[in-house]
Write a structure and sequence with these properties.
By secondary structure, the protein is of the alpha/beta class. It is built from seven helices and seven strands, in the order H-E-H-E-H-H-E-H-E-E-E-H-E-H. Bound molecules: flavin mononucleotide. Flavin mononucleotide binds next to loops.
Length: 214
């Protein structure tokens, strides 16, 4: 069937395949039997991997190089995202140290979020709403801020803790515990009082997954 497949293609065609079973017979026909080596076989399930993408830029047998649109920098960014997602998947407990910067997360924390929120990898979009794929982990959010947002007149301005819960909920995380280190700009007394309260809270923490979140 692989030979028929190849023979049915126009000269210098590109044949997109998926997975090993689809691809190996074609490679065998080309590499071992020398059939239609003008055809480029591209296995879409390998298209997230840097070495595979980069080898498309070279001529193979009689098939010309492919003009890959992704730059090496873009490919490297995908590699970083894969590493960060793997790290997140491997963790039982996630601790996020988040300082409030202009009412929201810092740009570095936002960059981490933009790497781990990945349709098809950490969540699946659908008509029924998104389905998160990262589940069963306890998340501790340690939120430091100059002002006070747990209650009082500034509470509605907190775009940090609600945002983190929303975006991490989007990828499936639901078991949150928030530890606030607030009032850090209100002078040493207020600042230390909040640190002490945070340390007291930390001393009572349950470190297992699926304890009651708040
Ligand atoms: C650029 C910048 C913006 C900030 N924006 C806010 C803010 O919007 N609200 C707030 O309460 N504190 C704000 N802060 C204060 C920090 O949240 C606070 O100092 C916090 O303790 C920093 O935590 P860290 O030392 O762990 O980074 C800001 C600090 C910086 C440097």
């Amino acid at each position: 069937m692989a030979k028929d497949y190849l023979e049915s293609c126009a000269p210098n065609a590109i044949l997109f395949t998926f997975g090993d079973n689809d691809t190996y017979p074609l490679w065998y026909a080309q590499e071992v039997e020398g059939i239609r080596t003008d055809i480029r076989v591209i296995n879409t399930s390998l298209l997230g991997i840097d070495w595979y993408i980069n080898q498309l830029r070279y001529k193979v047998n009689n098939s010309d190089s492919i003009d890959v649109i992704w730059t090496p920098a873009q490919i490297e960014a995908v590699g970083l995202a894969e590493t960060l997602v793997a790290e997140l998947k491997a963790a039982d407990i996630v601790v996020i140290a988040a300082s409030m910067i202009n009412f929201g997360p810092s740009s570095t924390l936002k960059a981490w979020i933009d790497h781990i929120v990945w349709p098809g990898v950490t969540m699946v979009p659908s008509h029924e709403g998104p389905r998160g794929l990262i589940t069963g982990k306890k998340v501790f959010i340690v939120a430091a801020s100059g002002g006070i947002y747990s209650s009082g007149p500034m509470a509605a301005n907190d775009m940090l803790v609600p945002y983190l819960k929303q975006i991490l909920g989007f990828i499936g995380l639901s078991d949150f515990e928030t530890i606030r280190v607030e009032a850090q700009s209100f002078g040493p007394e207020d600042a230390l009082r909040s640190v002490d309260a945070a340390l007291t809270q930390v001393a009572t923490l349950k470190l297992s997954a699926n304890s009651t979140g708040r």
